[in-house]
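= Paired protein data =
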Amino acid sequence: MKDRTRLLLFIVAFLIVYFVPFTGIRMQGAILEAFLMLQEYAREHVLFCLIPAFFIAGAICIFISKEAVIKYFGARANKILSYGVASISGSILAVCSCTVLPMFAGIYTRGAGIGPATTFLYSGPAINALAIILTARVLGYELGIARAVGAIAFSIIIGLLMSLFFRDKQGTDEELIASESPAGKSRSLGQNGLYFLVLVLILIFAAWAKPTQANGLWNTIYGIHWYLTAGLLVVLSMMLLRWFKKNEITDWVHSTWIFAKQILPLLFAGVLIAGFLLGRPNTDAGIIPSRFVAMLVGGNSLWSNFFASIAGAFMYFATLTEVPILQGLLGSGMGKGPALALLLAGPAVSLPSILVIHSIIGFKRTFCYIVLVVIMSSFAGWVFGALF
């Protein structure tokens, strides 16, 4: 770090310590809320969402050949196949904007083009079948259908635009394939497929959220999800013992650790900041009172939709929590257009995820991705509000 940067940081820290009114009730509450949100995030998401996701990302880097990634996600791959696979593979995970990050980093560093990679990045948290069903049942079928159509279309359009704005270098595919290790594979394609299926199922069942209703299939699965997770862990252990070499397992763990140490600090910092600014959902304990947000998203003006998109892009939504939050905001006077804008921008992006995405693909690509999400969500919300 340069001395000039250190000096600037010292000055900023001094000004914060000198001028911030730490004795104020609102300020003290917001600081406490930041750590409470971090604690809640650690308890509910790190062990059962992020850790499995890190292991999946590590497995992608070690056990999936670059040739296979480039075949489906590379710059010269068939566009229909590439973006179709990216959107579908992201949507089946039902994860939040932070949990999808390790897997996004895995396929991107393995050679995926920026377009399919960002399609996967958006589709993972946005195209969530359970969340869309819950949206339709709680907030109305119009919002549910609009969310489903918008999220599917956005994932592909954003990916195509990112690919257009940031073209992958010519020859990249060949260079990546040429750099692939010539070591022989010790497993068949079917064995590798089963291995990744088990990893994904562990992530899905370990992170299975408690349904709002007391009966139904989702609640039945919730009642046995720990047994399913434990059984899958036993199956995974047997696979590792029988199909994998010791050095492969070591490389997998090492790759997982690389992703964890790159992503976790940024995520925790982002959660702290989001908690300080807006507080946990439905607490109104952040430094920014929630009534200001509700006041700014009433009606269906372009500004209200734009503000809803911006607020959604910086807020953190755990999987499915956006629905009760929107239910409360709609009851406080929020328009249907801004509600859709927040649904399309919020689950897909958050302040913690923005920090991590920046570390993976750089400032320009991250800024463009966020701008596309915000603008498209704002426009979709404005059109929806005008129709309904």
